[in-house]
């Protein structure tokens, strides 16, 4: 599942669609006082947290550059091994 926090959810949907990552189940939260922001308090936006089924943060990535989706896919693959 992915949680996208964005004051403009349409922008978040367009971004996730552009990544073409398989098996995403997006949840969109409209503002900065969302429970996810309170729980993880990201230092930068965008931020990516890979969280295992027990709720442990296994990977954190700040920012976005083209090709970062490859790093995210590797982090997810490593997590399910």
Structural topology:
Blueprint: E1 2-5, H1 9-19, E2 26-29, H2 35-40, E3 47-51, E4 57-62, H3 68-79
Parallel strand pairs: 1-2
Antiparallel strand pairs: 3-4
Tally of contiguous helical segments: 3
| Helical content class | 25-40%
Count every beta strand, where a strand is a DSSP E run of 2 or more residues.
4
Radius of gyration from the alpha-carbon trace, in angstroms? 12 Å
Helix and strand pattern: EHEHEEH
Report the CATH superfamily. Answer: Glutaredoxin
Q: What characterizes the major β-sheet?
A: 2 strands, parallel
| Average predicted confidence as pLDDT | 77
Cα distance spanning the termini? 18 Å
Q: What structural class do the secondary elements suggest?
A: alpha+beta
Uncertain spans, ≥5 residues at pLDDT below 50? none
Overall geometry:
globular
CATH overall fold name: Glutaredoxin
Q: Briefly, what CATH class?
A: Alpha Beta
Q: If classified by CATH, what would the architecture be?
A: 3-Layer(aba) Sandwich
Describe the protein in words.
With 81 residues, the chain is an alpha+beta fold. The protein has a single domain, classed as Glutaredoxin, CATH 3.40.30. The chain contains 3 helices and 4 strands, in the order E-H-E-H-E-E-H.
List the defining traits of the structure above:
81 residues, alpha+beta, Glutaredoxin, two-stranded parallel sheet, two-stranded antiparallel sheet, 3 helices
Would you summarize the structure shown here?
The chain has 81 residues and is an alpha+beta fold. The chain is built from three helices and four strands; from the N terminus they run βαβαββα. It has helices at residues 9-19, 35-40, 68-79; strands at residues 2-5, 26-29, 47-51, 57-62.
